């Protein structure tokens, strides 16, 4: 005997629920009923559902929120929307949120039957769709094809064959060291030393001796002469990451090294000439550090002969698919002995997420997903923080001020931050909305 499909019905109108249930049971479907999104989510977590049929206009959490939730947590499950408030914008929002079709109340039994059958057909077709594989573009170990990525590579091309000082700025995880390595290894100095130093990882009292070296007897424990990173990088490139963490004493010696091309070991008076290219990087606002007397202004201008700003991943989303495919190949071979693929639904989530941790966070997410997956990386293999979440209101009583704040936040979220549209819905002017936000 064939298994009956399980259909979840969600509507705050009991009469509509009973009508839907009678019609669908006569079509040999098995139904579950929920009068709220909260109850629907509980059923979804405990029961395998083949099709969701939901109303849009419901109190507290509406049907659009439920569609977005199920679209990410249950991507292969088809969804059908029924509403008594038809509108073009509502239809588009429902389809965008994952609905297969749209029915307007009142509807006939035949119209319901056709919509349900169409939803199951579309759901089966969706499973067969494959995500197009983007063409890979690589530059010095970096991957991308977006205009922002190309701006960075164009600057690299201009500085790679000279020893101009470069300051690389960007958020944590954007790949600043990759940019520095690309400058060094793609140019004519590729065969010279490349020494990378994380200034933030060196205790402040050791920064000077680690960078410039020291002579025997310079301090307790200095039992021999020792070269520093400057001597090790002589003739090549010294990459100073997190330059903003360098002490003021070290900044003074760095300035001299840049101006005079010479250094002095700790405990020595002998001047040593160095032929070196300095590339520095920071995720801090050095101009603010200058105002707060934490960074030397003259050193800042010496470092910024050429300035390269590495864009965050949220500003180069066209590169997410390329980066993802690269990580799927790399870690698929490392962990599973074969490259893995990504489902279209999971790809959509990666594309939408804002990536506060940038490329490093994306890489970590793909590593974890590959470990959790057996074949194709799907939504269920991604961390929950990437997925759409429904937040239910606390059932305890709250103050009117707190309730107003929550409602304004909800309207702003619905309007995607558009204050003019939010003010229209709230029936207040923008000035009043601005004051409430403050």
From TrEMBL:
4-aspartylphosphate, modified sites: 55
The Sigma-54 factor interaction domain, residue ranges: 142-371
SMART domains: AAA (SM00382), REC (SM00448)
SUPFAM superfamilies: CheY-like, Homeodomain-like, P-loop containing nucleoside triphosphate hydrolases
Keyword Phosphoprotein: yes
Residue ranges occupied by any Response regulatory domain in the UniProt entry: 6-120
Domain of life: Bacteria
Record key words, sorted: ATP-binding, DNA-binding, Nucleotide-binding, Phosphoprotein, Transcription, Transcription regulation
Protein name, entry field: Sigma-54-dependent transcriptional regulator
Species annotation: Euzebyella saccharophila
Native organism taxonomy: Bacteria, Pseudomonadati, Bacteroidota, Flavobacteriia, Flavobacteriales
């Amino acid at each position: 005997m064939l298994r009956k499909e399980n259909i979840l019905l969600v509507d705050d109108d009991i009469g509509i629920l009973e009508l839907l249930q009678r019609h669908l049971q006569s079509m040999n479907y098995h139904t579950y009923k929920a009068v709220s999104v909260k109850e629907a989510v509980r059923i979804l977590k405990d029961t395998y559902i083949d099709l969701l049929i939901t109303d849009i206009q419901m109190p507290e959490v509406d049907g659009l929120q439920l569609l977005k939730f199920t679209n990410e947590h249950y991507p292969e499950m088809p969804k059908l929307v029924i509403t008594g408030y038809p509108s073009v914008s509502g239809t588009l929002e429902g389809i965008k949120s994952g609905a297969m079709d749209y029915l307007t109340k009142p509807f006939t039994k035949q119209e319901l039957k056709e919509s349900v059958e169409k939803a199951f057909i579309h759901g089966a077709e969706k499973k067969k769709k494959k995500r197009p594989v983007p063409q890979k573009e690589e530059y010095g170990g970096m991957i991308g094809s977006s205009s922002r990525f190309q701006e960075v590579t164009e600057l690299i091309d201009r500085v790679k064959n000279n020893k101009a000082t470069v300051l690389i700025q960007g958020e944590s995880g954007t790949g600043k060291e990759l940019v520095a390595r690309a400058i060094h290894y793609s140019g004519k100095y590729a065969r010279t030393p490349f020494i990378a130093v994380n200034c933030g990882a060196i205790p402040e009292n050791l920064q000077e001796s680690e960078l410039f070296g020291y002579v025997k007897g310079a301090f307790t424990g200095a039992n021999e002469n020792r070269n520093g990173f400057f001597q090790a990088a002589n003739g090549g490139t010294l990459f100073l990451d997190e330059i903003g963490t360098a002490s003021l004493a070290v900044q003074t010696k760095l300035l001299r090294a840049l101006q005079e091309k010479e250094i002095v070991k700790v405990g020595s008076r002998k001047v040593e000439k160095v032929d070196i290219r300095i590339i520095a990087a920071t995720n801090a606002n050095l101009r603010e550090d200058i105002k707060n007397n934490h960074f030397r202004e003259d050193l800042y201008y010496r470092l910024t002969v050429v300035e390269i700003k590495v864009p965050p991943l949220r500003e180069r989303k066209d590169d997410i698919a390329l980066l993802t495919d690269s990580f799927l190949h790399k870690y698929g071979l490392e962990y599973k002995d074969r490259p893995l693929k990504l489902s279209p639904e999971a790809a959509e989530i990666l594309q939408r997420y804002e990536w506060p941790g940038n490329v490093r966070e994306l890489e970590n997410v793909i590593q974890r997903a590959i470990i959790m997956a057996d074949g194709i990386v799907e939504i269920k293999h991604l961390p929950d923080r990437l997925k759409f979440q429904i937040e239910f209101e606390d059932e305890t009583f709250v103050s009117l001020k707190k309730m107003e704040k929550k409602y304004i936040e909800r309207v702003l979220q619905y309007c995607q931050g558009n204050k003019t549209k939010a003010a229209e819905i709230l029936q207040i002017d923008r000035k009043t909305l601005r004051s409430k936000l403050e």
